[in-house]
Amino acid sequence: MSPILKDIALLALGTGLVLLTVTIIGEQMRRRRPASDPGVEIFMARVDSWWAMAITFTLAMLAGRWAVILIFAIASFAALREFFTYSARTKADHLSLAIAFYLLLPAQFLFVYFDMQRLFAVFIPVYAFLLLPFVAVLRGSTERFLRRVSETQWGLMIAVFCLSHIPALMWLELPGPDGAATGRGMLLIAFLVLVVQAGDLADFHIGRRFGYRQIAPGLSPKTWAGALGGMAVAGAMGMILSWVTPFGPLGAAAMAMVASASGQIGNLVLRAIKRDRGLRDWSHLIPGQGGFLDQLDSVIFAAPAFFHLTRLWWMTA
Amino acid sequence: MTTQTGPTKPLLAVPRPTFLSRFAARIAGHALVLFARAITAVHAEWRGVAPAPRQRVYFANHVSNADMPMIWTVLPPHLRKQTRPVAAADYWLTSRLRAFAGAGIFRAVLIDRRPETRSDDPMAAINQALDDGASLIIFPEGLRNQGPEPLQKFKSGLYNIARSHPQVELVPTWIANLNSVMPKGEVIPLPLMCSIIFGEPVAARDGEERRDFLDRAAAALLALKPEDPE
Prior knowledge:
The structure holds two protein chains of two kinds.
Chain A: H1 3-32, H2 38-63, H3 65-85, H4 94-113, H5 117-138, H6 145-168, H7 185-210, H8 224-240, H9 248-276, H10 292-316
Chain B: H1 19-40, E1 43-46, E2 56-60, H2 67-74, H3 77-80, E3 83-88, H4 89-92, H5 96-105, E4 109-111, H6 122-131, E5 135-138, H7 157-164, E6 169-176, H8 178-181, E7 195-198, H9 210-222
Parallel strand pairs in B: 1-7, 2-5, 2-6, 3-4, 3-5
Antiparallel strand pairs in B: 6-7
Helix pairs in contact in B: 1-2, 1-5
């Protein structure tokens, strides 16, 4: 068995064991309560979604680079759809939005696939930023123009540009001893997702129980205690998983804490957008979690920070 | 379904279902459901009624040709099987493909809207379908709504059904956001999320006038409209 296969199998096994434990606990809670408890049912729906995500992602890693890029492209499509459904637009934006969905989004993920790192970095923040408003101008309507083009660009930045940094983590790997690609970059994705997820969960439970000073009162019940607890748990998780990274135990813990912090920021920012649009969830596509944007908000924000820090690591190392 | 039929053309005959065409219609129906879900992630919200196997008339707002397939998509398969859309013969019987879709896939109750050519009472076909136990999808505005108002005045068919079949539930059905998926004049559909909201059934009261009932039904439908995201 090649080392990468062994690592994927170990990760899958570990995640599977944790999910199995959680499933058993949930089923016991279900059995103990006579009437069906909505809290338990939501929890179980979440656990089912986690299973689905863990299995999909493991299979994609086994299938190879293209499959990992493809599942994140699909997630990006779903996230962009959720964002644009509620963003400011008029009939005059039809063409720009169609270009965003059918040209810009696939292009960004093709850049990841074909290793076009420079285009990957400038395509949406520069070229799309300058050219999409021009497409909107051609349609002639200036009604709420700045709002429309800004929100379109924002959607692209979040749901496509930032999200595409997750599969782009596959670029970041040291060549093996024989100078060949090792494919270990995709383990960094698993690392990022797992530590951010662990941080979010810990933040939720610690914040509910021990926190009292809210970070953004009126917007979110998130507390400073919860946020710090989340970062600490993410750090511990990072240390446990440090064997899949090149960072070493302490380095992995630090990276995990940074990722968790930026993830929690993302959660707050997207919550503010939802609040502005009067939404509770972005959609109903992931049972128990809401939409793709609800599920991915923290990973989306964590990915660029994690990507650039990792790169910096290599440049200085 | 407001294609202006110019000088009246003779309509095709309703194709006779064969084993093969029924099979093709089933496959095409599944493909259509998949396609609609992939593009719009269309989602049903059963706000006023449960998706129960009762005989119903779903009456909906009409903004686009995709309205009816969308409702049809979100109905659970066991309800879809007993539900037939009421549609214009002068649209669905003008090409062989449309005739296959209208009669084969959707099993539509086809009605000729053109007063100069129609041979029988349009209500007769509707009543027949209801007597056979089918549920129906109807668009009481008649034509597609392309004006600024969210809802146009209802035509009388709904009232006639309420009087002739009082046991049938009349369910207001709001189709949200579909208009931005493919506004008139665009060719590329945008993948934006749509939802179909089913409200509480409306029944005609004793002695209620035609116009009063129709306005009340329209108000019940309009009440389901979600607020615009500005």
